[in-house]
Amino acid sequence: MATTRTEQQVRAVVYTRISNDPTGAAAGVTRQEQDCRKLAADLGWRVVSVLPDNDISAYSGKPRPGYRELLRMLADGEADAVLAWHPDRLYRQLADLQDLIKVVQATGAHIRTCRAGAVDLNTASGVMTAEILASVSKHEVAHAIERMKDKKKANRAAGVHHGGPRPFGFQPVKRRAKGETPAVPKIDEREAALLREAANAVLAHAADPETGMTLAAVCRHWNAQGVSTPRGNAWTVPSLRKTLLSARLAGLVEHKGEIIGPGQWTPILEHDVWTALRTVLTDPARRTGSGDHDGKTVRYLGSGLYRCHCGAAVRPGGARADEPQKYRCTGKGCVHRYAEPIDDFVERVIVARLARPDARAAFSGPETPATAGPSTQELNARHATLSARLEALADAFADDDDADPAEYRAASRKLKERISAVEQQMAEAQSLAAAAREPSPLDVVDLPELARRHQADPSDALEWYRATYPLERRRKILAVLAVVTVRPGRRGRPKAGAPALDPETVDIDWTR
Questions:
Q1: Helices 376-399, 124-157: crossing angle, 10 deg rounding
Q2: What is the pTM of this model?
Q3: Do 302 and 314 meet the contact criterion of CB atoms below 8 Å apart?
Q4: How far, in Å, CA of 367 to CA of 418, rounded?
Q5: Chain-centre distance of CA 429, in angstroms?
Q6: Strand 110-113 to strand 117-118: parallel, antiparallel, or no bridges (unpaired)?
Q7: How distant is the alpha carbon of residue 329 from its chain centre?
Q8: How many Å apart are CA 259 and CA 166, to the nearest integer?
Q9: At 208, is the secondary structure helix, strand, or coil?
Q10: Which parts of 320-428 are beta strand (E)?
Q11: How far are the Cα atoms of 14, 220, 228 from residue 231, in angstroms, in the given order?
Q12: Does 480 score more than 80 pLDDT?
C-alpha cells in the first residue's frame, strides 16, 4: 500500500532576510530564524536548511544567494515547504514573486509565515493576493525612501551632519540612535593643522612654482611623516585633491557638487582660502597631456599651451611605442604631429625675439590697476551675513509647521544665488591679488647674455636657454609672450633637403 506524505514528514527550509545590518551582527536574521523554528515545531515540520540573506535588500533587485538556493532546493525536491517571518522577507519585487510562483506551482510546495499565515500560490486568488501584497510592499518602500530623501534634504539645508566615513581633519562621530539628534563633528587639531599647511603650500606654488609645494610633494611629505588617510592608506594625489576640494573644510554642506549652505561644524579653512584653493585645483590649465602638475613632470613645451587651428587644446599623445611623442588635438582630432620639431621651431623663434633690444619693454605688462570693488574684508562680512540669513531661514522653516515649502525654496534660492555671487567676487579678488604678487617670467632671464649668444650662434643661444632655465619657467615665458596655433602638416613625405617642419603650419602670435 502506497504511503502518503503527512504533516510530520514535511521538510522545511527557513528563509531569513534583513535589508540593513550596519553592525554585521546578524541579530535580525537570527530573531527571524528563532520565530520560524518555533512555527516549524508547532506545525510538526522538520527544518532541513536555514538560508539567510543578511544585509541584502529585496527592493534593490541585487542578487540574493539565499533566495536563489531556496528556489533550487524546492525545484530539485530537496524541500517541501518554506518558512519565513513575513511575505516581504521573501519578495518585494514582482519579478522575484514570479520565480517563486513557477517553482511552487510545479512542485506543490507550501509557504507559511510567522506574521501573515499561509501564502497560497497554487490558486489564481492566492497569486492575485500575493501580487497585491508585493505591490503594496514595494509602494511602502518607495514611500519610505521619499520620506528619507526629504528628511535628508531638510537636514542638509539646516547644516546637519549626515554621518558616513570620518573625513580627514575631523574627529570620529559616535553613531546616533534612531530618533537621536546627529552629533556635530569636532575638529582634529593635528590633522586640521596639516590641512592648513597643505592649502597654503599649494596656493604659494600656484603663485610661483619655485615656492610652496605641489599636491604630489605634500603627499610625499605626509607619507614620510607617517600621516595616513582616515582608512589607514597612504596619501595619493587624487585622495588629497578630493580632501582639499571638500566644502566641509570651509564649514559648508555640499550635495552632488552643489553648495547647500553653512554646516553646524567649525570650518578648518577660512572661506576665502578654500575658495582660492578650489579655483587653483579646478583650473583646466593645470592639466597637461603628459601628466599634470600635481603628479607627473611636464615633459613637453606645448602641453596644454598650444592650440589647434580648430580652437581646441593640443596635448601630447597618440604615438606608438616605437615612435617619438606627438601632439594631438583634444577636440576633433584634426592635428596629429610630432612634438619635437614643433617645440624646436617655437623656441628658436622665442629666443630670437628675446634677443632683440626691445624685448623686456615689449613684453612687460602694465601694472595691475587697483580695483574699485569691495575689499576682501567687506566680501567676508557680506558672505557671513548672507550665510547667517540662510541658516536663520532654515531654522524658521523647520519650526513653522504651516510654512509654505515653495516660499522657502524661492527665498533660499535667492540667498544662495547672492552667496554664489559673493563667492565669485572673492575668488576673483584672490586671483587678482595672486596675479599682482607674481613676478614676470622675464624678470629672471639674462636677456643681455641671451642676445650676445644669439648674435654669435643662434643654435648655441637656444642650447644655453634650455640648459639655464627649466621647462616650467620656459612654459611660463611662452604663455606670456605668444599664442601658438598648430595646423595640420603637409601630406606626403618632404622633399630632399627640405626642413623637417614647414613654418607655415605653425602660427606664432605675439601677445603684445
A1: 140
A2: 0.38
A3: yes
A4: 31
A5: 27
A6: antiparallel
A7: 26
A8: 20
A9: coil
A10: 326-329, 336-338
A11: 38, 18, 8
A12: yes
Question: 404-463 pLDDT, tens per residue?
Answer: 777 877 887 887 778 777 766 766 666 565 555 556 678 788 999 999 999 999 999 999
pLDDT digits (tens, 9 = 90+) for 104-157: 899 989 999 998 888 888 888 778 877 777 666 665 655 555 655 555 555 545
Contact call for residues 354 and 383 (beta carbons, < 8 A): no
User: Distance (Å, rounded) from C-alpha 246 to C-alpha 260?
Assistant: 13
**Burial class for 19, CB neighbours closer than 10 Å (0-12, 13-18, 19+):** middle
Return phi, psi of residue 258, to 5°.
-110, 130
The one-letter code for the residue type at 393 is L
Check: CB of residue 266 under 8 Å from CB of residue 418. Answer: no
Tell which residue, 95, 80, 89, 81, has the closest CA to residue 33: 89
Q: Using an 8 Å Cβ cutoff, are 394 and 260 in contact? A: no
**pLDDT at 180 (0 to 100):** 58
Which has the closest alpha carbon to 313: 322, 300, 324, 323? 300
Distance CA 280, CA 200 (A): 12
Helix (H, G, I), strand (E, B) or coil at 73: helix
Distances (CA, A) of 337 to 244, 299, 341, 497: 37, 16, 9, 20
**Contact assessment for residue 113 and residue 91, using Cβ atoms and an 8 Å cutoff:** no
Burial 94-108 (b: 16+ CB within 10 A, else e): eebbeebbebbeeee
- Beta carbons of 119 and 111 less than 8 angstroms apart: yes
**Residue written as grid cell 521538510:** 11
Q: Are 346 and 506 in contact (CB under 8 A)?
A: yes
DSSP code for 251: T
Q: Are 304 and 315 in contact (CB under 8 A)?
A: yes
The C-alpha cell at 393 is 531661514
What does residue 63 show for φ and ψ, rounded to 5 degrees? Answer: -60, 140
- For residue 277, the cross-strand partners are none
Distance separating alpha carbons of residues 278 and 431, to the nearest angstrom: 11
Beta strands in 108-155, from DSSP E residues, in sequence order: 110-113, 117-118
Percent of the chain with pLDDT over 90: 23
Tens of pLDDT along 350-367?
A: 999 999 988 888 776 555
Q: Which three cell numbers stand for residue 48?
A: 532541513
